[in-house]
Design brief:
about 130 residues; Nuclear Transport Factor 2, Chain: A; about 40% strand
Length: about 130
């Protein structure tokens, strides 16, 4: 696995944990695609780079706080797969933990695609890795 790819993903997670969407997207390719179509809830779909700030404002605005805890970084060639737990506090102080797996596709030092999967196995299968 390219250490540069892992560092790009780590920097994205750190930026999200700081609430800095501009820093999170600084290494996104111009044709970046965010696939949130497997999400549960009203704001799901596939979003381009130009739609990400609006998505982020809506998404982050539903929480008092959001922190991502990555569990591992899995090598899948041009992809980095990261199972994680999101720790969120809602507007009414309700604390929730959500476990998902995210896959970044990185080419030439730029994130081209970010895709959320509900299950780790689903992300591994999509990347052509066996369980």
């Amino acid at each position: 696995m390219s250490q540069e790819n892992v560092e790009l993903v780590r920097a994205w997670i750190d930026a999200v944990n700081r609430g800095d969407i501009d820093a999170a997207l600084k290494d996104a390719a111009p044709d970046f695609e965010f696939d949130f179509s497997r999400a549960v809830g009203p704001r799901r779909g596939v979003f381009g780079l130009d739609e990400m700030r609006g998505f982020w404002d809506y998404f982050a605005g539903t929480f008092e706080s959001l922190r991502i805890e990555p569990h591992e970084f899995i090598d899948a060639g041009e992809c980095v797969i990261v199972p994680w737990t999101a720790h969120v506090v809602g507007r009414d102080g309700i604390e929730v933990q959500a476990r998902t797996t995210w896959t970044w596709t990185i080419r030439d030092g730029a994130a081209e695609r970010l895709c959320m999967y509900q299950e780790r196995e689903e992300a591994l299968e999509a990347a052509g890795l066996s369980k």
